[in-house]
Design goal:
mainly alpha, about 0% strand
């Protein structure tokens, strides 16, 4: 594992220490790695949503009513 030296603001350092003290994590390193994993997972989700939105926007608009769209969606789900 790569070693890094990083600095934290006092409030952030105190929060990290509190998490370790409360035995949520065994060390600051474990906590930081978990936070990074969560951020990476969240970024994957954001990228997926962004791609879906871009695809939807590129497909154009519809003049269908809400009811027509709902009926089409249910039809697609039910096969």
């Amino acid at each position: 594992m790569a070693r890094q030296s990083i600095s934290f603001t006092k409030p952030n350092d105190e929060w990290l220490k509190a998490q370790v003290h409360n035995e949520e994590y065994s060390s600051k390193s474990e906590l930081i790695n978990d936070l990074i994993r969560q951020a990476r997972k969240q970024q994957v989700q954001v990228d997926w949503i962004r791609a879906k939105l871009n695809k939807s926007e590129a497909s154009g608009f519809t003049d269908d009513t809400k009811e027509q769209i709902l009926k089409q969606s249910k039809s697609l789900l039910n096969g």
